[in-house]
Amino acid sequence: MANLSDESATLVSVVIPVHNGCGFVENAVRCAAEQTWPSIEIIVVDDGSTDATASVVRECAARDKRVRLIHQANGGVAVARNAGIASAQGDYVAFLDADDLWHREKISKQMEVMQRGGADTGIVYCRYREVDSEGAIIKSPHFPPYEGYVYPLLVLFNFMGGGSAVLVRRKCLLEIGGFDPSLRARGAQGAEDTRAFLAISERYAVRIADSYLMGYRLSDGNMSSNIFKMFKSRQIVLREVRNRHPELPAFLFRWAAGENASWLAERSLREGKFPQGLALLARTILIDPPSALNLRIARSLTRGILRRLKDWFGWTSSDHPVKSERQHIRHFHEISPEEGLQTEPRIPDRHDRRRAVAARLAVAGVVPTS
């Protein structure tokens, strides 16, 4: 084993929570095992799976002694991650949802930033690409490289993407009590990541490994496909933040709720889930009408209609009246994580202007650090 006293070989604990993920978990373990960082452990937390997940992980563990399997009754992603944190032996923890993807240099690039940032750095995140069930790239969101004191920005929107995009100092997770299982108890899973990121960013700086190192899988089977639970979860977190920090301007919370509802409406419509999408669009109009004036929603509605027509009429890519968008899409692992970092200048839209306001609040330090 590498000498853990050597800074370049500091142990990183990879925590993979999984529930009925036998179709994805082997690939997740492989993504972790193939990391270029020299010292990792891989902790798979089986959250009460009823399929062959445990058997698949045991086979992985037989081939790679760095893999450990933890069993628990089904308690949700927060409880599963907390079990992994408790079992972790490393000073740093990286989370990987079983259906997401990592580039092999993810941890190495993040640890370089973490070590350079020093003890006041609590989280290092990376850029992410949205991928489909086969790992083909759907979209590569591009935001400015937000760093430092980012609390108001995180209130507005979760630019980090999700749990699979972050590397976290373990002591920070212990200080905040880990992930909040009460959201699931309230029927509102979905914002556990955001809540934890907010709690840590109150006390520590956030840094970025500025490459596309994570693939966030959009599929009907993952937890975030339950759109209304995600909306409710985010609303609960926003109420908690507003009660905790009344000094933050009211417009920030209105914008945050509207942007969240608009994003969920866009996603629902793109997937052809029209009742959900239209209901969320109506909520967007009630909460923050400008958030509903979104060209992406119109595009998503069009794509959703075409998707439904394709299903109804049994069209294939070759006979579809509109050429399949997948014809020119590549797999996550086929392209460099640096591709797409340089974007063409464009006229700032409403989202950009709002994020600029939140960034100015962050620079001003509206919320004192705890």
Describe the structure.
Helix 9 packs antiparallel against helix 10, helix 10 (250-270) packs antiparallel against helix 11 and helix 10 runs parallel beside helix 13. Strand 6 (121-131) and strand 7 (137-139) form a beta hairpin. Mean pLDDT is 88; it is low at 1-5 and 317-325. Strands 1, 2, 3, 4, 5, 6, 7, 8 and 9 form a nine-stranded mixed beta sheet that branches. The protein is of the alpha/beta class and 370 residues long. It has two domains: 7-217, Spore Coat Polysaccharide Biosynthesis Protein SpsA, Chain A (Alpha-Beta Complex), CATH 3.90.550.10; 227-329, no CATH class. The chain has helices at 25-33, 53-63, 77-87, 106-117, 151-156, 170-175, 182-185, 192-201, 227-244, 250-270, 274-287, 289-292, 295-313, 350-364, and strands spanning 12-18, 40-47, 67-72, 92-95, 101-102, 121-131, 137-139, 166-169, 205-217. The longest helix is centred in the C-terminal third of the chain and has 21 residues, at 250-270. Residues 13-141 form the Glycosyltransferase 2-like domain. This is Glycosyltransferase family 2 protein. Its EC number is 2.4.-.-. Keywords: Glycosyltransferase, Plasmid, Transferase. Pfam families: Glycos_transf_2 (PF00535).
